[in-house]
Amino acid sequence: MKNKFIIYDPPMCCSSGLCGPNPDQGLIDLNTTLSELKNLGIEVERYIITQSPEKFKENSKVIDLIQKLQLKALPITTFGEEVVKTGSYPTLNEFKNLVQNDK
Questions:
Q1: N or C: which end of the chain has fewer CB within 10 A?
Q2: pLDDT per residue over 38-95, tens digit each?
Q3: pTM here?
Q4: What architecture (CATH level 2) is domain 17-102?
Q5: Where is 73: in which H helix or E strand?
Q6: pLDDT tens figures, 19-53
Protein backbone atom coordinates (compact mmCIF):
# COMPACT_ATOMS: atom_id res chain seq x y z
CA MET A 1 0.00 0.00 0.00
CA LYS A 2 1.51 3.29 -1.05
CA ASN A 3 -0.79 5.55 0.96
CA LYS A 4 -1.44 5.84 4.66
CA PHE A 5 -4.20 7.38 6.70
CA ILE A 6 -3.61 10.40 8.91
CA ILE A 7 -6.19 11.48 11.45
CA TYR A 8 -6.02 15.08 12.61
CA ASP A 9 -7.76 15.03 16.00
CA PRO A 10 -9.42 17.83 17.95
CA PRO A 11 -8.03 18.79 21.37
CA MET A 12 -8.12 15.79 23.73
CA CYS A 13 -6.89 15.07 27.23
CA CYS A 14 -4.66 12.20 26.09
CA SER A 15 -3.40 10.59 22.90
CA SER A 16 -6.36 8.22 22.52
CA GLY A 17 -9.09 10.33 24.09
CA LEU A 18 -10.07 7.30 26.15
CA CYS A 19 -9.44 8.81 29.54
CA GLY A 20 -11.74 9.97 32.28
CA PRO A 21 -14.82 8.28 33.72
CA ASN A 22 -17.01 8.66 30.59
CA PRO A 23 -14.96 8.26 27.40
CA ASP A 24 -16.69 9.17 24.14
CA GLN A 25 -18.25 6.13 22.42
CA GLY A 26 -16.97 7.35 19.05
CA LEU A 27 -13.41 7.23 20.37
CA ILE A 28 -13.97 3.75 21.82
CA ASP A 29 -15.20 2.60 18.41
CA LEU A 30 -12.25 4.30 16.71
CA ASN A 31 -9.80 2.55 19.02
CA THR A 32 -11.32 -0.83 18.07
CA THR A 33 -11.22 0.12 14.37
CA LEU A 34 -7.57 1.19 14.58
CA SER A 35 -6.65 -2.12 16.22
CA GLU A 36 -8.35 -4.02 13.40
CA LEU A 37 -6.62 -1.88 10.77
CA LYS A 38 -3.25 -2.50 12.40
CA ASN A 39 -3.94 -6.25 12.26
CA LEU A 40 -4.62 -5.85 8.53
CA GLY A 41 -1.32 -4.01 8.04
CA ILE A 42 -2.99 -0.66 7.33
CA GLU A 43 -0.97 2.29 8.62
CA VAL A 44 -2.75 5.08 10.50
CA GLU A 45 -1.07 8.07 12.14
CA ARG A 46 -2.88 10.40 14.55
CA TYR A 47 -2.08 13.94 15.53
CA ILE A 48 -3.83 16.04 18.16
CA ILE A 49 -4.03 19.73 17.34
CA THR A 50 -2.81 20.83 20.78
CA GLN A 51 0.08 18.34 20.86
CA SER A 52 1.30 18.39 17.24
CA PRO A 53 0.28 21.70 15.64
CA GLU A 54 3.24 21.49 13.26
CA LYS A 55 1.74 18.38 11.65
CA PHE A 56 -1.47 20.31 10.95
CA LYS A 57 0.52 23.17 9.40
CA GLU A 58 2.27 20.73 7.05
CA ASN A 59 -1.01 19.99 5.24
CA SER A 60 -2.53 23.00 3.48
CA LYS A 61 -5.86 21.21 2.91
CA VAL A 62 -6.21 20.58 6.63
CA ILE A 63 -5.36 24.19 7.48
CA ASP A 64 -7.84 25.45 4.87
CA LEU A 65 -10.63 23.33 6.38
CA ILE A 66 -9.86 24.53 9.89
CA GLN A 67 -9.81 28.15 8.74
CA LYS A 68 -13.15 27.66 7.01
CA LEU A 69 -14.97 25.43 9.54
CA GLN A 70 -12.85 26.01 12.65
CA LEU A 71 -12.78 23.11 15.11
CA LYS A 72 -16.03 21.72 13.64
CA ALA A 73 -13.86 20.33 10.82
CA LEU A 74 -12.09 18.01 13.26
CA PRO A 75 -11.42 15.20 13.16
CA ILE A 76 -10.05 15.31 9.62
CA THR A 77 -8.91 12.10 7.98
CA THR A 78 -6.60 12.05 4.97
CA PHE A 79 -5.53 9.20 2.75
CA GLY A 80 -2.51 9.95 0.65
CA GLU A 81 -2.88 13.59 -0.32
CA GLU A 82 -6.68 13.68 -0.15
CA VAL A 83 -9.06 14.62 2.64
CA VAL A 84 -11.48 11.70 2.87
CA LYS A 85 -13.62 12.66 5.87
CA THR A 86 -14.24 15.64 8.14
CA GLY A 87 -16.20 16.16 11.33
CA SER A 88 -16.26 12.50 12.38
CA TYR A 89 -14.10 9.40 12.25
CA PRO A 90 -14.34 6.91 9.38
CA THR A 91 -15.87 3.54 10.12
CA LEU A 92 -13.95 0.32 9.61
CA ASN A 93 -15.83 -0.23 6.34
CA GLU A 94 -14.99 3.28 5.13
CA PHE A 95 -11.30 2.69 5.85
CA LYS A 96 -11.39 -0.68 4.06
CA ASN A 97 -13.22 0.73 1.03
CA LEU A 98 -10.65 3.49 0.62
CA VAL A 99 -7.81 0.97 0.75
CA GLN A 100 -9.60 -1.33 -1.70
CA ASN A 101 -10.20 1.51 -4.16
CA ASP A 102 -6.52 2.49 -3.94
CA LYS A 103 -5.29 -0.84 -5.28
A1: C
A2: 999 999 999 999 999 999 999 999 999 999 999 999 999 999 889 999 999 999 999 9
A3: 0.90
A4: 3-Layer(aba) Sandwich (3.40)
A5: none
A6: 767 777 888 899 999 999 999 999 999 999 999 99
Among the residues of the chain, which ranges form H helices?
25-39, 53-57, 60-69, 92-102
* Domain ranges (residues) in the chain: 17-102
Q: How far, in Å, are 9, 11, 59, 88 from residue 35 at the CA level? A: 17, 22, 25, 18
Size (the chain), residues? 103
The H helix count followed by the E strand count for the chain is 4, 4
25 C-beta neighbours (distance < 10 Å), count: 8
**Can you give the pLDDT at residue 60?**
96
CA distance 57 to 27: 24
**Distance in angstroms (rounded) separating the CA atoms of residues 79 and 100:** 12
